[in-house]
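Hello forum,

I keep getting stuck at the same step: I have a sequence, I want structure tokens, and every attempt I make locally crashes halfway through. Rather than fight my setup again tonight, could one of you with a working pipeline run this one for me? It's a single chain of 425 residues.
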Amino acid sequence: MKLRTGTLAFALALVAAACTDSTPSPTVNVTTPATTSTSAPMPTVTQAPPPTATVTTTTTTTTQPPPPPPALAEVRVDVEVIGDGFVQPILATSRAGDQRLFVADQPGVVYAFDLDEGTGTVILDINEEVRFSGEQGLLGLTFHPTDAERMFVHFTGNDGSTRVEQYRLGPSGVADPATRSVVLTHPQPATNHNGGMIEFGPDGYLYIALGDGGGANDQFDHGQDPFSLLGTILRIDVDAGDPYGIPASNPFADGISGAPEVWAWGLRNPWRFSFDGDDLWVGDVGQGAWEEIDLLSVSRPGDNAGWPLLEGTHCFRFGTCEPDQFLGPVAEYGHSGGRCSVTGGVVYRGSSIPDLVGTYLYGDYCSGEIWGLRLGEFADEALLTDPDDVFLPSLPALTSFGIGPDGEVYVLQASGLVWRLVPAA
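Reply #2:
Ran it on my machine without issues. Output:
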């Protein structure tokens, strides 16, 4: 394993992943098997006079509020490469009871990566079934929360359609082709805006992100059509029905006013989303001017993010609109400075960088910059990488963020690298 480190300097800022068509053979080492502070002062003692003294002891506890975290602009971290030689790593995740990092490579290969040894083992290779070109390919990977042997993948089939399939891992930890089952398929009218993220929520349901069908400017009119599965986040129950059931709390569960699978809509290309408790953070890629971060909640089905009437907070299709009718983003940024496409991230809950706990990390695909965003009492936003840093200019072609089995954050580049955020020396 080759290891490189660089300093990420944080500077204040306001704040569709592009892919290559080449499919070189991966050179990754691969084996294919057959606080809250509480102070307690001295007790207060009350005594009656002798000879029959009665002593009553009362303990008074004073709870101090936690100190505010440092401004994000003051926080410094490093990164280290933990894996290279992938073709185009697109997602990193973990599963219960396993200390390996699972990496999806866009041509159609899933690796189980040993973080101690720095080696990857192929556990699924569906390259021959995947169309790998531009924004198409193997795009999503997740494991069932209570049955970690069940693995789900989201990819572009050879006919250009979206496919979500399930495999079961065998005794050797490799996906058994005989267990393959199709969960969902949907045609795509263009080659871009495929979405691709899949993840189980805290409610046990599977959430699936699909873009608006591609082209430009929502030319297929899916964004504001609740009967379309495109331009949405779907929610389905893979433990009920054949091949899935519909959660009763889905906003159109009865199918009368919209497609039963739709959970949120009005999205352009929700490339990456992640859960933090009941919060669902979504990075929705903009058309040509504004990138946005949306914050949804498991307890609030039916949010409409407004595309194509809105791009971020800005009226788009008709020049006039009523933004208050839609879910507004919690952050947005423009395309200055070489920025082009938001890469949604994760909330940091690791232990190695305490100053980042509770901070949402996200970035831009083209510039490679990484931002931190805090909401609530200690609201703050800062650029987590400095493009002028001579040690680490940025991480361009930034495809994804993931949380490993150690609870730490991993960052992926289309150039074939997987990085881990670590504390600054």
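Residues 207 and 235 are 5 Å apart (CA to CA). If your local run keeps crashing, start a new thread with the error log.
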